Amino acid sequence: MVKKKNIEQNxxxxxERMEPIPEAGKVSTEETEVTAAFEESKIECEELSEFxxxxxxxxxxxxxxxxxxxxxxxxxxxxxxxxxxxxAEAREYALSEFLCRLLxxxxxxxxxxxxxxxxxxxxxAH
Length: 126
Fold this sequence. Notes:
The protein is an all-alpha fold.
């Protein structure tokens, strides 16, 4: 955008330097050169503006793609983190579920051993 403004300012300055032609049909070489320079700068301005537009479009697309890439990477990191937490939670739940089922069995086993020790019917060999 800065280049375009500079070129437009240069064009304006060139145009201001052009003096009105005092006599119709007579054109000085200086005026011809100024007019030619003005026309050339107009063409360059159009070419640069097309180039700048294409460049800006590419930069905007690049920024959008980089933004999408960063978002996808963040999403993948979040999925990994959530997955690890869920796996740890599942292990903990499975272990607690197993222990909850095992506790009554252990309690019954302890009671059976105490009953066996207190009973005189069971020999000391067993």
